[in-house]
Specification:
By secondary structure, the protein is mostly helical. It has one domain: Hypothetical protein af1432. The chain is about 50% helix and about 0% strand. It has nine helices and no strands. α3 crosses α7. The protein is elongated and about 60 Å long. It binds fe (ii) ion (2 copies). The site of one fe (ii) ion has 6 residues, from α6.
Length: about 200
């Protein structure tokens, strides 16, 4: 990452156009390769069983495989693949981690689904933990309620089956790399998209 020109300022308030041209010449290809870093982080879930019948990477792959085989578009499948990527960093708010990573690249609906999937999945087990399994009810009537419940019912909830024919990570790699090349929404969008032309 250190090849090419570098900025010379030691105080950002003193930065110049030349500095930022140098920085962006490196930042743009770095940002565009974000899928590689996301995939590397997803691999941290490998071998992390956490008491479940399959590890968290297999659960992620199986959720995505089920969505893919059900005919979901690629952005949905990537959302499904990454919905639990925050398990390593956010033990108490893992959906927020995935939601933040996906936010520049997905629709409002897919972002809402991944952000709220934890509460919706809770319907299947919160009562075993002394929690309210109907916590999701506070969102009843929300325009994305049914879509989120469907994600849980069809893909996330049943994806703990060690006998399911789950696709390997390599199957999803090309779509993840493509997915993270260009943001739909970002305060940095002008710079990144201008260079893409
Ligand atoms: Fe989750
Ligand atoms: Fe999950």
């Amino acid at each position: 990452m250190s090849e090419g020109a570098s900025a010379t300022f030691h105080d950002m308030s003193q930065s110049t156009q030349q500095d930022w041209d140098a920085i962006m010449s490196q930042n743009i290809p770095f940002a565009r390769n974000g899928g590689r870093r996301v995939l590397d982080h997803l691999k941290l879930l490998n071998g992390d069983f956490g008491g479940f019948a399959i590890d968290r990477l297999q659960h992620s792959l199986q959720t995505a495989t089920r969505a893919y085989r059900d005919g979901r578009p690629e952005d949905y499948v990537v959302m499904a693949l990454l919905h639990d990527i925050g398990d390593t960093l956010g033990a108490y708010n893992h959906p927020d981690i995935a939601a933040a990573i996906l936010k520049p690249f997905v629709s409002e609906e897919l972002h809402w689904i991944v952000e709220h999937h934890g509460i919706f999945q809770g319907y299947n087990f919160f009562h075993f933990l002394g929690l309210d399994r109907n916590m999701r009810d506070k969102f009843r009537g929300h325009q994305y309620y049914e879509a989120t419940a469907e994600f849980i019912d069809k893909y996330d909830c049943p994806a703990f089956d060690p006998n399911y024919d789950t696709a390997p990570l390599e199957f999803f790699e090309p779509m993840v790399m493509k997915f993270f090349e260009y943001p739909k929404n970002s305060i940095y969008k002008r710079e990144t998209v201008t260079e893409a032309a």
